[in-house]
């Protein structure tokens, strides 16, 4: 198991280097630069432009800038935002818990509904239920997030008045963040109704962000289950007279899990992409919205630092997913 | 009671409770029935020191709420009145400005700072020397650059700032510059506390000056959570008297449709920048009051006057004549705009009513073009910016309409677009033939349009028509040098006449600004500069 773990870590190092380079080059390849964006319609004289670019160190050759960026990253310094002047790392850490909380809720929502839907659809193949699940997931998968979010807000917040429109918690509640997770902080705050308020604010964004992963997980579970259900050992289990629930739930489901877990791991990347739109619609103070703003402003340090951190999170999640394969399937664990 | 009114009452009750709780926490007293005003704003401020930034979003959260300036624009107007300076004298030669400061103005008390003295001349000197003097201990704190101060040309203009006594400060200029006073009313000229700066420098935390602001303004900052919420409480010692509301909350809501939903649900009292598509719904909502005013802006099509055939005024006039502006107002601005005939909006003093616009006349345009030697037309480019701007909601659509108008007189135009940063860079360098562009005023002074955008020394930056016309330039430069308002008005009126004869731009439109708010909001006025002020605002019970 240790060797398995180490081999996975070894793969991460070049990936990490690659990510730093891509993040660094990506933002510089975009036309325009931070000084130009800051000046807007007013424009700057070429001398002033050069002076400001030099102040930020953007006048040096790119490999020099990259080398110093990399050197600083290794010392844990991602630089300061050009716009807010605050350290990129601290801005990220302030905003990231909001994204993480939303993403965890969304993926739990997707698993909670997606797995059973997929299993049931597979075990009732060809029935109305199966067709219903397939149609619903296809719709969910094709739904543009922005439109879907607004639709839910208009229905549940506007017409029915069941959920708040946007934000993380009612403005009524005011406490200093401790963990950055609103559900936990609201409990710690000891203010009446704070937790319920935080929870009700989470419902719609969770559904919106969780819809696509839910659809993918349900479809992936269904097809994996269908494949496993036609295996010999399942037929044997049935022939032994085991009840269907046991055959499907234990023998088939556990073997169908590997591709499903892979899908869940891959969906974390999708989640972070979806978070950008979801956060914008629901005024959710997370890193997605922050990254988009930084790209628009050509805030090089924020973009390269933010992309690097997000990519690291995705890599870590996928590492964890790799490790769970070992738990599910002993053949992987033992390297056979 | 209708559903939405019911919801509003419910929310307002909650907010009242909230504000009471907040005030109790913040002020340490058991206040009752505090009034909390919620503003659905569009984004996070870049920071809390308005000297560093240029975005309206930042100014709303800083200079408009927390700080004051020596001179301030009268509420809802572009005219100047006293601020932290009660009065001022300008020397005969227009080079010396002496400000007599207001006494009895208290600084905010925060967790980082308890003031031991009131506002005085040291604060004024500190505020400006920080921006002016590259060797000032605070000049480089926080990696600051002073975009506005620099781009208004103040480093070259100001030669000396002196404290005459505790309540008198004198600015000496290199040359007379009439718009100087209006510049001091701008957000970047907000006055910071020198005592707070000293204390923070000694404590080794100078950046706190910029991050945990201390001002003299009507509200003081209580808490800020990036991309979520900014909380203020009314400054009980404000020198004009305490604001009518007790707490002010900015609920940061980036999406315009969501802001509208929040307004309808009573989750905020006032919102910024509505979607044009939502305006009809707002007008018909019985709980919403939709205020509107012409913006301090101009959207125009500029001709690159350094390139042929646009160096010929006849060609420019012919092309301008061919544009159906009324159709553009309908289609592009969806009615939320007015036809522009002058390069400055009508809300600015010296706007020349008497100027007659170039008429929309396709036949006349053809004739004029033939006279200029282009009976068969020619081929050209129209550059259209890729982004929505306050003065032009849809440049692409506008370009298409102009393209088809010009086709009628034989001018074949290709539409060109670049990503915004690239667009700004290339048009400043003069790569275009004609371009769509615009401007939002900074300080309500005609100079800020007529010289900043059309003066000879702005060619290569803001003068994207690259129009350097001596008879015009002489007038707008002279208008900067005289301080007599009547004389300046006369000069600017004359400049507008010359502009119209020469047509370096086809002036298209001034957009209209909309502010949707709940009917219970009283006393709000639209700020012509695009900012939001809440000092005079009240909520009707």
CATH topology annotation of chain A: MetI-like fold
Reading off the top of the CATH hierarchy, the class of chain A is best stated as Mainly Alpha
Helix count of chain B? 18
Helix content of chain B: 25-40%
Domains of chain A (count): 1
> What ranges of chain A have pLDDT less than 50 throughout 5 or more consecutive residues?
none
Jot down its keywords.
heterodimer; A: 336 residues; mainly alpha; MetI-like fold; 14 helices; 76% helix; globular; B: 541 residues; alpha+beta; seven-stranded mixed beta sheet; five-stranded mixed beta sheet; 20 strands
Protein described:
- The complex is a heterodimer of chains A (336) and B (541).
- Helix content of chain A is 76%, strand content 0%.
- With 336 residues, chain A is an all-alpha fold.
- Chain A has a single domain (88-333), classed as MetI-like (MetI-like fold, Orthogonal Bundle).
- In chain A, helix 1 runs antiparallel to helix 4 and helix 7 (145-159) crosses helix 11.
- Chain A is globular.
- The model of chain A has no long low-confidence stretch (mean pLDDT 86).
- Chain B has helices at residues 3-27, 56-61, 121-132, 147-151, 154-157, 180-184, 194-202, 208-211, 256-264, 279-284, 313-321, 325-331, 362-371, 395-407, 420-428, 447-450, 470-481, 485-502, and strands at 36-41, 71-73, 80-82, 85-90, 96-101, 158-165, 168-173, 219-225, 229-234, 247-252, 270-271, 288-294, 297-303, 337-339, 379-383, 412-416, 434-440, 505-518, 521-522, 538-539.
- In chain B, the strands form five sheets. In chain B, strands 12, 13, 14, 15, 16, 17 and 18 form a seven-stranded mixed β-sheet that branches. Chain B has a five-stranded mixed β-sheet with strand order 8-9-10-1-11. A four-stranded antiparallel β-sheet of chain B has the order 4-5-7-6.
- In chain B, helix 11 (313-321) runs antiparallel to helix 13 (362-371) and helix 17 runs antiparallel to helix 18.
- In chain B, 52% of the residues are buried.
- Mean pLDDT of chain B is 90; it is low at 1-31.
- At the A-B interface, helix 2, helix 3, helix 5, helix 7 and helix 12 of A face helix 1, helix 4, strand 10, helix 9 and helix 15 of B.
């Amino acid at each position: 198991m240790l060797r398995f773990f180490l081999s996975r870590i070894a793969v991460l190092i070049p990936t990490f280097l690659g990510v730093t380079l891509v993040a660094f080059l990506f933002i510089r390849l975009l036309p325009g630069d931070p000084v130009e964006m800051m000046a807007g319609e007013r424009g700057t004289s070429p001398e002033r432009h050069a002076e400001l670019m030099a102040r930020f160190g953007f006048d040096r050759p790119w490999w020099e800038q990259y080398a110093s960026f990399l050197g600083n990253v290794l010392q844990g310094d991602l630089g300061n935002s050009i716009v807010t002047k605050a350290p990129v790392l601290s801005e990220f850490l302030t905003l990231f818990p909001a994204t993480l909380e939303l993403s965890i809720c969304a993926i739990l929502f997707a698993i909670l509904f997606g797995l059973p839907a997929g299993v049931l659809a597979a075990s009732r193949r060809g029935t109305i239920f199966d067709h219903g699940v397939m149609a619903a997931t296809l719709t969910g998968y094709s739904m543009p997030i922005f439109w879907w979010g607004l639709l839910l807000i208009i229905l549940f917040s506007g017409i029915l008045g069941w959920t708040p429109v946007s934000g993380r918690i009612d403005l009524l509640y005011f406490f200093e963040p401790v963990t950055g997770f609103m559900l936990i902080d609201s409990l710690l705050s000891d203010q009446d109704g704070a937790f319920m308020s935080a929870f009700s604010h989470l419902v719609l964004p969770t559904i919106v962000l969780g819809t696509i992963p839910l659809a993918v997980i349900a479809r992936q579970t269904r097809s994996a289950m269908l494949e496993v259900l036609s295996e010999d050992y399942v037929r044997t289990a049935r022939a032994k007279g085991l009840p269907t629930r046991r055959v499907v739930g234990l023998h088939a489901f556990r073997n169908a899990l590997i591709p499903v877990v892979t899908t869940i791991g891959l969906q974390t990347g999708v989640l972070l992409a979806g978070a950008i739109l979801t956060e914008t619609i629901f005024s959710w103070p997370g890193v997605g919205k922050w990254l988009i703003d930084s790209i628009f402003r050509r805030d090089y340090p924020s973009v390269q630092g933010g992309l690097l951190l997000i990519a690291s999170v995705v890599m870590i999640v996928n590492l964890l997913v790799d490790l769970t394969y070992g738990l599910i399937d002993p053949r992987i664990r033992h390297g056979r | 009671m209708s559903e939405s009114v019911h919801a509003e009452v419910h929310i307002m009750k909650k907010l009242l409770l909230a504000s009471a709780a907040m005030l109790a926490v913040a002020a340490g007293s058991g206040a009752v029935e505090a009034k909390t005003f919620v503003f659905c704003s569009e984004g996070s401020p870049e920071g809390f020191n308005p000297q560093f930034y240029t975005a309206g979003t930042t100014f709303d959260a800083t200079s408009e709420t927390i700080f004051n300036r020596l001179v301030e624009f009268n509420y809802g107007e572009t005219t100047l009145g006293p601020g932290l300076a009660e009065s001022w004298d300008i020397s005969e030669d227009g080079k010396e400005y002496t400000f007599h400061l207001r006494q009895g103005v208290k600084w905010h008390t925060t967790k980082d700072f308890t003031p031991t003295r009131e506002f005085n001349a040291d604060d004024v000197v500190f505020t400006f020397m920080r921006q002016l003097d590259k060797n000032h201990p605070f000049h480089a704190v926080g990696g600051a650059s002073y975009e506005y101060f620099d781009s208004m040309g103040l480093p070259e203009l100001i030669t000396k700032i002196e404290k005459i006594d505790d309540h008198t400060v004198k600015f000496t200029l290199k040359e007379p510059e009439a718009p100087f006073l209006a510049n001091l009313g701008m957000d970047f000229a907000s006055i910071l506390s020198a005592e707070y700066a000293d204390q923070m420098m000694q404590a080794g935390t100078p950046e706190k000056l910029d991050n945990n602001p201390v001002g003299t303004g009507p509200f003081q900052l209580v808490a800020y959570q990036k991309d979520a919420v900014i909380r203020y409480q009314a400054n009980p010692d404000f020198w004009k008297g305490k604001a009518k509301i007790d707490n002010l909350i900015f609920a940061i809501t980036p999406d315009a449709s969501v802001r509208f939903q929040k307004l309808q649900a009573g989750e905020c009292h006032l919102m910024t920048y509505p979607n044009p598509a939502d305006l009809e719904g707002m007008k018909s909502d019985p709980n919403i009051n939709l205020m509107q005013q012409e913006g301090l802006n101009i959207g125009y099509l500029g001709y690159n006057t350094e390139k042929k055939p646009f160096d010929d005024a006849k060609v420019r006039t012919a092309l301008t004549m061919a544009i159906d502006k009324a159709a553009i107002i309908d289609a592009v601005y969806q009615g939320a705009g007015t036809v522009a005939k002058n390069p400055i909006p009508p809300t600015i003093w010296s706007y020349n009513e008497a100027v007659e616009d170039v008429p929309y006349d396709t036949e006349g345009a053809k004739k004029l073009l033939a006279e200029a030697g282009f009976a068969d037309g020619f081929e050209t480019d129209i550059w259209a910016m890729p982004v929505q701007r306050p003065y032009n909601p849809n440049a692409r659509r506008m370009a298409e309409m102009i393209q088809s108008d010009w086709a009628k007189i034989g001018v074949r135009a290709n539409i060109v677009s670049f990503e915004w940063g690239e667009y700004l860079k290339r048009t400043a360098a003069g790569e275009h033939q004609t371009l769509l562009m615009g401007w939002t005023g900074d300080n309500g002074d005609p100079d800020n349009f007529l010289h900043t955008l059309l003066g000879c020394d702005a060619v290569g930056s803001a003068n994207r028509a690259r129009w350097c016309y001596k008879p015009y330039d002489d007038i707008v430069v002279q208008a900067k040098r005289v301080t007599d308002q009547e004389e300046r008005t006369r000069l600017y009126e004359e400049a507008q006449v010359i502009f119209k004869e020469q047509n370096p731009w086809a002036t298209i439109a001034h957009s209209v600004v909309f502010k949707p708010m709940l009917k219970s909001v009283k006393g709000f006025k639209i700020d012509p500069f695009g900012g939001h002020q809440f000092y005079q605002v009240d909520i009707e019970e």
